[in-house]
Amino acid sequence: MEITLLSLFLLLLMALCLIGIVLGWKKYKDHPASKPAAGGLMVLLFILCLCFMGSQGYFGGGGSDKTQMKNNEKYVMSASFILGKHLAQKFKGQKVLIIARPHFSSDLMQSRMIQSLKEGFGGDIKDVSVVGFIPDSGPASGAGTLMSKPKASDFDAIIEKNPDCALVVSLVIPSNLEEMKIFEEGAAVRQKFAFLLCDSYKLKNAISAGIVPACVIEKLGATLPGKVPSDPQKAFDERYILVTAENVSDIASKNPVLFAQ
Hints:
261 residues, alpha/beta, 8 helices, 2 domains, six-stranded mixed beta sheet, elongated, 6 strands, Rossmann fold
């Protein structure tokens, strides 16, 4: 249940109505005129109850849906922060490139993910650039490109233009991830590539080899409580797994469906 100022106001009015009803019925013997007033308060109380239930989304409205969306956002922010914190230990003082959606600056979720990543970097990684991928069909423009699915060629083009970045962190995942040039056998220059909330199925070898130093994936069958912990690490542990070269074999043995065999 989400308690807002409107909800508190409705609860206060409901409490006052209830008090008025009780007092009205108690004084009914001495003051018969109080009975209609108490009846009117009962009608008002019923209406207020309906309004309160509506504010909480019991009739399919926004209350519960909004709460779920806010909780999901908090979990995603925890994933961004924890990934950034982990990478800061591995790439301290190095240059990092973040790949986001086209028009990421006007995408509230992407902007917050980038901010949470940077907060995770702290003072250890200060040289951070952000770029929105451009579909290889041409420059991104219009609402349709906001949800465009990137391809390996889009990422290859970005990497070629930023050869001085030691690490690339991607907030979006190419549809044909395994076809990226950095995964080719004997690639001359290999920047490290970290992924936030990705499909790890074809990444086991790249993670084991250190090409992908870390990626965040969702836990299988995670049961989430109603309230998101305020501690980013606790929130992260409830929903996600940080996969690295050190733990990928163990995770794969316990969750074989996550990786290609």
